Amino acid sequence: MSDRPLSGIRVVESVQGPLAMIGRYLADLGAVVDRFASEPDASAEAVVANAGKRVHTGNLGSPEAATAIERAQIVVADRASGADLAALRRARPGLITMTVSDFGEDGPLAEWRATGPVLHALSAVLSRSGIRGREPLLPPGDLAYQCAAPQAVFALLGALYRALSGGKGAHFDFAALDGAVQGLDPGFGINGSATMGKPVGLLLRDRPRAGFQYPIMRCADGYVRICLLAKRQWRGMFRWMGEPAQFASPDFDRTSHRYASADLLPHIAGFFADRLRADLEREGQDYGVPIASVLTLGEFLDSDHAAVREAVTTLADGTRLPNGFLTIDGDRMGPLPIAEGAEFPAVAGAALLAPFGDLKVLDLGVIVVGAEGARLLGDLGADVIKIESQAFPDGSRQSYLEHGMSVSFAAGHRNKRSLGIDLRSTEGRALFLDMVRQADVVCSNFKPGTMEKLGLGEADLRAINPRIVLSESSAFGDTGPWSGRMGYGPLVRASTGLTLAWRYPDDPLSFSDSITVYPDHVAGRICAIGVAALLIRRLRTGLGGVAKVAQSEVMIGHFAADVVRGTPAGGAATDWPWAAYRAAGDDEWCVITVESDADWARLCETIGYGEGLAFDSAAKRLAARREIDTAIDAWLAGRSRHAAAETLQAAGIAAAPMLRLSELPDFPYYVERGFYRIEDHPWLQEDVFGDAYVVKTADLPAPTLRPAPLSGEQSEEVIADWLGIDAAGIGTLKDKAILEPLAELTRQQAEAHMASDEPVTATGRWK
């Protein structure tokens, strides 16, 4: 068993509801977490959130809590706790505190109530969930809160690293809505399909059309999904089908041509129809075709892969539970038997301005997960070097602009410098290893085994720098029979039960997860959590370590309550109303959610539905869904989504207008909290929107404003800064094509774009 990174750290937590998962992450990483709650909670959600914590009955004002707080480095509390966190920090300036709420300590929505659907509505996730022509479809489970919690955890660990390094503590105002916007599928972050491939300002008001991306097809024993993105993948599919003449044209090498074909998908469907899922998976992988069976959550948990990975554990009372979200040095960071643990030793160091301001990071990450993990470190001050190659460009460099910059790339790679280097050459690898000797962190998210093939595997890097912290992410992990599978998010969602859960109840073929980018963003945050935790351990031990994240295990962790209950992922509604309802206007919707009999009574009074009081239990309301929906529809018919939500929230009912991506920057909540920052990027005519803080605080510096680089833009500068190589030496590296500086053609293309009068192509807003 490895030394858990937060061993010796003490946390006091008093948070009710799903954000109690904040403390669970810290407990999994080895912290002693003392939880204080006024009443016991035996729900499946509480079992998940409180695993590994020491649970006490009482509030933060009790003598027992006072003793625990006196020893703690972190205190996390919600409003109901009644804690005076400011007073605690006045007494102990090194303490880190966090207030947890749905909408922040103040602001226009501070008194509103939230549920998962409310957060989906206000984050614009709901507006693009479902199928064109139908009502918006609530995402399954509790994804909004589950994706929000890691954002809070990363902020706490960044502040803890600073405090342990000689700095002061910090106070955070964490809002669940902020975390959901950042961690689930941010429309203004780095996005694959969050904007459906279109400028935010030009998105259709409706949902995406069915089956447009990552098609799902019937086979003899269920469904499979394919992801034909690259030319080589299509060519593999073509050979697998026996090279049918009607698809032999080179035009089919282009994704756009394949999408436009009326005959291709039906032909593939016919090819799959009478074959078994397992056979299709095996044959498809032999031909290099990204393919996955569409499984239930239970099928994944019972798979040989999950068994080898020890992805599920059993608690002392027999409860079956997903076994944590990451591994450290090969050991799973799942719930531990509760132990007292030693105190974290005092660390001598210089106080930092930014939490990670003393760190050097080498970022080999690609696409969304790779972008996010290292970018978060850069937002907290680290010098992040994005390693690039002209032969193998980051897939996110594919852009509507020839010079490889886009609003999406700019948002995902801010606060990084780009170093172009040929890692396939002996001299290029040697140069990179020289940088590893200087580095604190190396991040990557390649298919397992890729770094080893380059001669840059874990053993190689740790041999030359025992203090190095390594972060790796993959689809299914680096061990187990599925570790070699091609790891696109849609395939992982299909394999873990989410795809089957994300359907309209009345239409089994209405798969609606294809345009979401999940769990990429939240997995990137969990990667950053692993890095931060290992950096904290390094303060104690002087040694680095390896944190690994499997996206499949992030997903099952988010449906852990369903695992405890033994139900399918997402489950069915347990009360009603719990849906989006049409309001006045063109495709306008208002989410309304009821969590208790008291909520229902208030709703009936508010909408004038006296006869509805007879439905005085959740079971009765579920049976009367049609009558309830009719009454709500009648009340909403003449009301705008905003007016309806405000009226309902004033009555204490969790409701919200459904927002679209283009509405977020000007919505009063985000304006008041200063959530979005607009960046004038030197190589884009359009505005770049980014979140202005990791978690809202006045105690840590806001993210710096270094814009995302063009490929190789700082190659010479980085080599000089890190290795002290002079101009002559840099010239030799360039002559040998070992160092790849910014290509002159790329610079010319970027300058031409800035001088042009091109139409708006990204956000719909000019500088």
For the biggest sheet, the summary is:
8 strands, mixed
Q: Gap between N and C termini, in Å?
A: 54 Å
| Shape annotation | globular
Number of DSSP-assigned strands: 24
What structural class do the secondary elements suggest?
alpha/beta
Q: What Rg do the Cα atoms give?
A: 26 Å
The number of distinct helices, counting runs of at least 4 residues, comes to: 31
Average pLDDT confidence is: 93
Estimate the strand proportion.
5-15%
Poorly predicted regions:
760-767
Widest β-sheet, arrangement of strands: 13-12-19-18-17-14-15-16
| Amount of helix | 25-40%
Characterise this structure.
There is one protein chain. With 767 residues, this protein is of the alpha/beta class. The protein is built from 31 helices and 24 strands. The chain has an 8-stranded mixed β-sheet, sandwiched between helices. The chain has a 6-stranded parallel β-sheet with strand order 3-2-1-4-5-6, sandwiched between helices. Strand 14, helix 14 (367-379) and strand 15 (383-388) form a beta-alpha-beta unit. Residues 760-767 have low confidence and may be disordered.
